[in-house]
């Protein structure tokens, strides 16, 4: 069993981590955790019976690379859920080498006679599927599917209670994510880019020191192979899968690699497999600018809006808040100083769901009054931070996975051109975007992933769900994936927010009839 090199060294000592994690391409950081801000300060409150607290017994070590023949030792972990750990190879090209473990959480079918297993992934990359099912089953999967399927969420390799990517202690993460930094270089200059590459390298080296060889094997292709292993373990001849956001990328790549094993796949909030890192940053920047504009329009037309004037004037007002944060030096009650990057994260977080737009009223009102605590509460909710501690490793895993999935080389002139384009196309938030290549330029392990279309020739029909007002995974990505897939069926939700299942009775019916009865809608069905 691979355990990594960090067993004896303990947490890293606190270092001076500049704020490059968010200064560079903050929007790429929000590819998508599917969460509901029903109460920002309680968003990541641990449940009373977390599956990670249960003592679990691993099955026997697979012999001869037969990982799909394991028998999980399911244990009760409260609330009607069962938990188990299983082995997976550290490197799928070396089946006789070291192994890692993967955490699973299952809710057995409520009717007692499951028609199969439904695997669920919430996105990220870096989000815990086990915690998603354990704590948010009603939000993740509708009651009809809970009745008919065993529902399993798993922590992908490097994530959560599976063998994790580990980089910094809480103090180090605070400095990396929220520290003011000391750079006086002009944004976009050679000196500024060099500082960013150095910061990325320093963070990556900390991850490598604590995580070891696993850091080079948390790519999406390895996770797809894990998922097919899990399908074999539960005994399903074909995979039934519900993937949200980045989870759609796992599902699409699964269909490409294992088309004959595709059962019923729903991909909701789609990441285009052909999109480069620059494409992702560009389209998400435009998406969040548009979502912010939709919020402003609704705000000005309602009551108690902290903004005023026309939509353009109110957008400029938000831009002025972002521009003025550095000079204002607003400090939270815990001593952290608010930066434009942290404020932008706070703005983006509620834009994932229209029902959460009200948090922006409070945010803009308090920041304009010189108060930073609401901004930090929103940013903390995104980073799973509570009372100065991080409840998971989602940020570390996010960086590690993306740096393998989006290998790139620094091209300073191209990045400057993109940054200028974003500032013009998205005048409120665009000036804080671009330069995404810097975030992985100094990463200590190199990925070999290619951004390529998926065909999944011979696969059963796959539902591709897109929301017209989705800021994180723009609708055109769903259209693109549906065209790429030989058997892709596009389902359109005319609405706002990230992902559609659970937000529309029409979408719910289409998805649930597909999973339960195999009913495939005509491509082009539209719900509102």
UniProtKB/TrEMBL annotation:
Under InterPro entries, the record lists:
AB_hydrolase_1, AB_hydrolase_fold, Pept_S33_TAP-like_C, Serine_prot/Carboxylest_S33
The record's listing under Gene3D superfamilies reads:
alpha/beta hydrolase
Source organism per entry reads Leucobacter komagatae
Write down what this protein is called.
Answer: Peptidase
Q: Where are the transmembrane segments?
A: 20-44
**Which PANTHER family does the entry mention?**
2-SUCCINYL-6-HYDROXY-2,4-CYCLOHEXADIENE-1-CARBOXYLATE SYNTHASE (PTHR43248), TRIPEPTIDYL AMINOPEPTIDASE (PTHR43248:SF29)
Record has Cell cycle as a keyword = no
What residue stretches are annotated with the Peptidase S33 tripeptidyl aminopeptidase-like C-terminal domain?
427-527
User: Which keywords belong to this entry?
Assistant: Hydrolase, Membrane, Signal, Transmembrane, Transmembrane helix
A molecular function GO annotation: hydrolase activity
| Pfam name, any one | Abhydrolase_4
Q: Where is the signal peptide, in residue numbers? A: none
**Family the UniProt entry places it in:** Belongs to the peptidase S33 family.
Q: Which residues form the AB hydrolase-1 domain?
A: 117-309
């Amino acid at each position: 069993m691979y355990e990594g090199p960090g067993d004896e060294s303990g947490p890293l000592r606190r270092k001076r981590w500049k704020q490059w994690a968010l200064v560079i391409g903050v929007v790429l950081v929000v590819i998508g955790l599917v969460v509901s801000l029903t109460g920002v300060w309680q968003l990541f409150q641990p449940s009373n019976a977390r599956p990670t607290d249960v003592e679990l017994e691993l099955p026997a070590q697979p012999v001869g690379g037969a990982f799909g023949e394991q028998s999980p030792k399911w244990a009760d972990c409260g609330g009607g859920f069962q938990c188990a750990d299983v082995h997976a190879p550290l490197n799928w090209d070396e089946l006789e080498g070291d192994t890692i473990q993967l955490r699973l959480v299952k809710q057995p079918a409520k009717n007692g006679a499951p028609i199969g297993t439904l695997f669920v992934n919430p996105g990220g990359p870096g989000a815990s599927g086990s915690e998603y099912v354990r704590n948010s089953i009603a939000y993740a999967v509708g009651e009809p599917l809970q009745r008919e399927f065993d529902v399993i969420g798993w922590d992908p390799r490097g994530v959560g209670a599976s063998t994790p990517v580990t980089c910094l202690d809480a103090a180090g993460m605070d400095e990396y994510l929220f520290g003011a930094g000391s750079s006086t270089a002009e944004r976009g200059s050679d000196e500024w880019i060099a500082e960013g590459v150095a910061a990325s390298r320093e963070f990556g080296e900390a991850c490598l020191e604590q995580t070891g060889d696993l850091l080079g094997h948390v790519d999406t292709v390895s996770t797809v192979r894990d998922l097919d292993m899990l399908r074999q373990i539960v005994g399903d001849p074909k995979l039934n899968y519900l993937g949200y956001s980045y989870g759609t990328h796992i599902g699409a790549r699964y269909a490409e690699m294992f088309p004959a094993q595709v059962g019923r796949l729903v991909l909701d909030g789609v990441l285009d497999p052909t999109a480069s890192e620059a494409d992702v940053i560009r389209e998400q920047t435009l998406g969040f600018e548009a979502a912010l504009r939709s919020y402003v329009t609704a705000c000005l037309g309602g009551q108690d809006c902290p903004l005023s004037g026309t939509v353009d004037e109110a957008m400029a007002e938000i831009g002025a808040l972002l521009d003025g944060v550095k000079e204002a030096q607003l400090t939270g009650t815990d001593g952290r100083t608010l930066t434009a990057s942290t404020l932008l994260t706070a703005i983006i977080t509620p834009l994932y769901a229209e029902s959460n737009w009200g948090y922006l009223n409070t945010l803009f009102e308090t920041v304009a009054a010189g108060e930073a605590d609401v901004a930090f509460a929103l940013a903390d909710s995104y980073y799973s931070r509570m009372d100065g501690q991080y409840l998971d490793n989602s940020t570390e895993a996010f960086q590690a996975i993306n740096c393998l999935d989006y290998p790139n080389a620094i091209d300073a002139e191209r990045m400057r051109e993109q940054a200028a384009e974003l500032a013009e196309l998205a005048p409120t938030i665009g000036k804080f975007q671009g330069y995404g290549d810097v975030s992985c330029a100094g990463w200590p392990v190199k990925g070999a992933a290619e951004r390529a279309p998926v065909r999944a020739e011979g696969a059963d029909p796959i539902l591709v769900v897109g929301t017209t007002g989705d800021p994180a995974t723009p609708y055109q990505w769903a259209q693109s994936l549906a065209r790429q897939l030989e058997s892709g069926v596009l389902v359109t939700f005319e609405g706002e927010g990230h992902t559609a299942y659970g937000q529309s009775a029409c979408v719910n019916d289409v998805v649930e009839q597909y999973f339960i009865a195999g009913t495939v809608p005509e491509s082009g069905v539209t719900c509102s």
